[in-house]
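G., the chain you wanted modeled:
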Amino acid sequence: MLALRRQVGEQPPDAIVKYAARGLGATPTEREADALAVAAHLAFGAGLGGAYALLPRVGSPAVRGVVTAMTVYAATYQGWIPALGILPRATEDQPGRPAVMITAHVVYGAVLGVLEERFRRTR
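Predicted structure as tokens:
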């Protein structure tokens, strides 16, 4: 995502943090907003990872992880993010950003599935 930042413009975590800051009446500096966006994105990913570990284990770990990550993608980029007016729906977004977001979620999901399975086996 970071490597393609120039191609796709503002990253969704940055847009979400700026939206939340406006709602709170805050004006973080660019550096603070970037740090908050990274922290929020990591926290969201870690929270999803924890919730993922509670799901039934059906099918291959990588596929299960990708399905979970794509469900999150659909709920966020086609759901609450556009509903709040933070970014347009993925189907109406600028060219390039949906493909980058889908790729990032597929990679995250596959890695999540494989690592969670390995962790579970080593316990």
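The mean pLDDT is 90.

Shout if anything looks off.
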